[in-house]
Every structure is written in C-alpha cells, then in structure tokens.
Amino acid sequence: MISWPVELIKDIARRKSVIYIGSGVSMNSVNRHGRRPKTWASLLEEMLAHIPSPKKHISKILKENDYLTACEIIKKKLGKERFVGLLRDEYLNPGYIPADIHKNIFNLDSRIVISPNFDKIYDTYVNTQTNGSTQVKNHYDDDVQSAIKESGRLIIKAHGTIDTPEKLIFTRKEYAEARSKYNGFYEILQALAITHNFIFIGCGVNDPDIRLLLEDTFFKHGSYKSHYFILAKGAIHNDQVDIIENTMNAKVINYSKNNDHEELTLSLEGLVTKVNEYREQLREDGNW
Known about the structure:
- Pfam families: SIR2_2 (PF13289).
- It comes from Dryocola boscaweniae.
- This is SIR2 family protein.
- By secondary structure, the protein is of the alpha/beta class.
- The chain has 2 domains: 6-29 and 97-285, TPP-binding domain (Rossmann fold, 3-Layer(aba) Sandwich); 40-91, no CATH class.
- Helix content is 52%, strand content 12%.
- It is built from 14 helices and 7 strands.
- The protein has helices spanning 6-13, 23-26, 40-48, 56-63, 67-78, 80-91, 100-107, 121-129, 144-149, 172-181, 183-195, 208-221, 238-247, 258-285, and strands at residues 17-21, 112-115, 135-138, 154-157, 197-201, 227-232, 250-255.
- It has a 7-stranded parallel beta sheet.
- β3, α9 (144-149) and β4 form a beta-alpha-beta unit.
- α1 packs across α14 (258-285).
- The longest helix is centred in the C-terminal third of the chain and has 28 residues, at 258-285.
- 33% of the residues are buried.
C-alpha cells in the first residue's frame, strides 16, 4: 500500500490541491462486454490498421513514442469523418462503467479535477453523484476563470471532450494551435499550478502540456512544496525521477502494478479515510 505523505493529505483536506487524472484512470473501467478504453498508443495502432500501405514510416514513428506526429499523419490519411468515427467508437459508444478508482477520486472531494481524457466516464459519474450540480468546462470555454472563482465542484477537460470532436487536442498541430488560440486557458492552469499542488493520477510524465506547465511555473516562481506523480513501479527509470524532481518540482510516489494496478485503487480508498480524518481534526480545532 502507498504510504501517503502528510503534506499531500493536508493539501487535499484543505482543498489546496488539484487532482489531474489521465488515461490510466479510465483504463480501470469496463463496459458490459468487458471492454476497456485503449491507451493512446493502442488506439493509434488500431487506427493504423485502417490505413492502406505504405505505412511502415508511421509504425516507426509510433515505436519512437512520437504519438503527436503519428496522430497528425494518421488523422490526415484517414480523413476527418473516419477519424472522428473511430474516436467515438472508442470513447463514446462502448458505454464504459465507472470503476472503484473513480469513486475514490470523487470521495477525496477535491473541488477542482482536471482531465485530458476525451471520454466522459468520470464526468458522468460525478454529475450522477451530485445530481448534475458539477460544472464541466473545456479548454475552449471562455468562462473557465469564472467557474474556478465560484465555490462548486469543477471538472476541467484540458483537451476537450468526445462530444465536440472538432475541438479535441490530439495531434501535434492541435497542441501547437491550442497554446496560441487558447493562451488564456494555459495562463489559468499556470495560476492554479502556482497556488495549488497538482496530484497526477494515471498520467505519464511526458505529456507536453504537463511538462511545459510544471517546468515553466517552477523556474519562474519556484516553490519548496512539490506536486506529485502517482506512478506504477518501473514506469520510469530512477534516473528520470531525479530529473522530474529538479525540473518539474514534482515528487514521484510508486505503487505496484500487479493485479491490474489494484494497489492504487486500494491506496486511494485509504487516502480518502486519512483525508476525512484530517478534515474532522480541522473542524474540531478550527485551524482551516
């Protein structure tokens, strides 16, 4: 089980953290046929099967983990209609059921949750639990700042939603265009990264948005308080951990990936208990 840092528990309890959930969280879900959402790499491999030869150069790009470039080429070759259809078949039509990990994240009661995931698994679960009172905002919405200033629950879709596929951030061009077109949104993320500690669950450390966000805010403003990446053991080499700590101001917390990452789900359940205990202590002494 994960031994959670005391500072992390305190930050969540005081709602001074932002939970950032990636595709690793969605992969815990299944639909009624036992199907799970694919990883970004697996989805691109499947899309590649729909493209006529020659395509060895695309496979080579995928093997080099340059997913943004590979996606750019695949989208162009498939055409917009076919590309969007495959995305909907993967992220919308299967009807994935929320897993225990979604429930545990919700029970942490973080006011702001950010997700780059296109699917609506967590969004749907939370709005069901809150009777539709949780706001869901996308990177292209012009009232994200207002939603953050309000007091209710907020889910921010950093890369868009499958409901609006023409505005998804998925390719190299879309990443580059979004940073310019929606510059105000990225300024808001920077402000949150300065005032809150981010806790990344089910996210890789190489997402370009995450790297730029954490590196930029750290070297501009600095902080002795760290963000956190919750990663499976072996996900990155130990040499990379030092780089992450010194360039992104983030600590890495490891867990065992055995039994479909069961330890993460159980550890998050334990974290909920610790957070609630600390909140009870805060209610008693009034030291919010």
